[in-house]
Amino acid sequence: MKHLRLERYLRDATKGLPPKKRVAVMRELRGNLEQHVLDRMVAGIPQTRALEEILDDFGAPQLVSRGMWGVHMKPLWTKITVGLSVLGVLSVPLFSASAADIKILPNAYINIDDIFTSLGWSNTKVEVKGDKFGIYKDGKDLLLSYYENEKYAKYSVQLKGESRYISPYNIFSMFSRYTELPVYFDPYTNKFSIGDKELNIVGQKTDLRWPMLLSMSSLDNFLEKQIGKHSTSAIIPGSGYQHYIKGNAKANHLYMLIWSGWEKSRQRADYDRRTIRLGMLKSDENGDFKFETSYKEVYFANRWESLKNMKRNQVLVVEMTGRINPSEYGKYDELIVPSNILKIPISIGHKAN
Amino acid sequence: MDSNLLKGNLDLILLGVLEGGEMYGLELTKAVNARTDGGLKVAIGSLYPALHRLEAAGFVVAQERTPPRGGTVVRYYQITDEGGQALGAKRQGYRSFDTLMQNFLSPQEETR
After folding, report:
1. Residue B110 falls inside a structural domain
2. Shortest CA gap B16–chain A (Å)
3. Tens-level pLDDT at each residue, chain A (353 residues)
4. How does pLDDT run across B1-16, given as a tens digit for each residue?
5. Nearest CB partner across the interface for A27, out of B26, B69, B73
6. Mind spelling out the 3-state secondary structure of A67-136?
7. Cβ A272 vs Cβ A164: under 8 Å
8. pLDDT digits (tens, 9 = 90+) for B83-108
9. Where are the alpha helices (DSSP H) in B39-112?
10. Contacting residues of B for A68, CB less than 8 Å apart
């Protein structure tokens, strides 16, 4: 049974799972959906309508993907993080030193360089065997290229510029934007895969795990330090990353992390254009905190000095207390922060006047 | 009904249904529905992650098979001995909780 909405549902419901598991879960969901459809067809409902109704009943696919991620991926991350902590790897004080100096706001800046370690990424090449594209980082440039006859013959995108951090996570993100296929990085084997194709990493073989784990761990450390709750984290390729902080949510307490960066573009490498992005830490229905990031580009009004003064690669941490009224994720046009009292108008998707 | 109540007891419900024999997802939802006269409806977003969690915990085992009406294979879940023990413990826990909750189900008598 092939149906556009069905395929989209299955894809979204399994997002973030490793390829083999993803295929298995897709098969299970598809099998059950088909049986649901058969039930309705027996009752005289045409197949297409039956499927539409069932997909409506199934609800948001993200509910399944989040649940499945919690079962299949979270323990893996916990194991890795704990394992490396035991080995002392994560105790490298790349961030913790900065965290100690952080004052909660409104003017606490953290340099992303402190969060993301920089390793020698030059000459690291990632190629996709059998597919005609790949990513090649050459010194300061990042190349997204077509792959022809064992050579990178034609470059579709070239990100020229200053030396900067390129993480596996960035690479997933790049791939995710260029392909609908699931992109996965296995930190155990240090291998990428796209769909069912495995990517070979050639050239300088840098341990890809560290920057990613350190960066996630650092943000965890920060959040844990500030909130005093146990936290766990995950990278969900293609859909941003989410942090869950277990504990009793303080309903009127919310952190907003804003970081500056460069604009991503399918058409051109225009990362000089300054953008900021938002991360929201808010309580969920179970009384836990959830930290969500948004990939939407956020252009900010010049009315808030703290935002106006942000430099590239800085994170602004805002602690908001009092009665907070953030609207839904991805839809917030305005954050109202009445704590003596900042009002921060933020528009998404267009430049504010 | 408060969905958190269902969510909090989902493992008990699923294991309780699987105690009667192996089933796949759709059959499980139907069984829960039938057993509660339509009073409980298990959301798909919770069902499959819960089944996978129970499997990871060793409380159920799963086997892929084509269902009787044909089509794509589905996973049939079967309760294990450990699952049976966990079910017993969950039932006991729920009964204890229910007993305590009875104290709150009537208005409190005023004390003078």
Report:
1. no
2. 21
3. 567 788 888 888 887 777 778 888 989 999 998 888 888 888 888 888 888 888 888 888 877 887 887 777 655 444 433 332 332 222 222 222 222 222 222 223 333 222 222 223 333 334 443 444 444 445 444 444 444 444 443 333 333 333 333 344 444 444 444 444 454 555 445 455 555 555 544 333 333 333 333 333 344 444 444 443 333 333 322 333 333 333 333 333 444 445 444 333 333 333 333 444 455 554 444 444 444 544 333 333 333 444 545 554 444 545 444 333 333 333 333 333 322 222 232 222 222 22
4. 666 667 778 899 999 9
5. B73
6. HHHHHHCHHHHHHHHHHHHHHCHHHCCCCHHHHHHCCCCCCEEEEHHHHCCCCCCCCEEEEECCCCCEEE
7. no
8. 999 999 989 988 888 888 888 877 76
9. 44-56, 81-101
10. 48-49, 52
Structure-token pair, residue A242: 């989410």
Contact between A222 and A95 (Cβ < 8 Å): yes
CA angle A45, A49, A53 (to 5 degrees): 100
CA distance B83 to chain A (A): 17
Q: Which ipTM did the prediction report?
A: 0.89
Biggest alpha carbon–alpha carbon distance for chain A:
67
Domain assignment of residue B111, yes or no: no
Longest alpha-carbon distance in chain B: 69
Q: Is A17 on the interface with B (CB under 8 A)?
A: no
In this structure, is residue B23 part of a structural domain? yes
**Beta partners for B72?**
none
Residue A334 sits at φ, ψ, to 5 deg, of -150, 135
Q: Are A50 and A44 in contact (CB under 8 A)?
A: no
Smallest Cα distance from B2 to chain A, Å: 12
Domain holding B21, by residue range, is 3-103
Q: For residue B25, which residues of chain A lie inside 8 Å, CB to CB?
A: 28, 32
- Across the interface, which of A32, A60, A71 has its CB nearest the CB of B56? A71
CA-based Rg of chain A, rounded to a whole angstrom?
22
Report CA A285 to chain centroid distance, whole Å.
21
When divided into structural domains, chain B yields a total of 1
- Asked if B48 and A67 come within 8 Å (Cβ–Cβ), the reply is yes
Question: Testing the interface with B: which of A2, A14, A32, A38 to mutate, by most B Cβ within 10 A?
Answer: A32
Q: Is residue B77 part of a domain?
A: yes
From chain B, pick out residues whose CB is under 8 angstroms from the CB of A12.
Answer: none
Flag whether residue A249 sits within 8 Å of chain B, measured between CB atoms.
no
The number of angstroms, rounded, from the C-alpha of A234 to the middle of its chain's C-alpha atoms is: 8
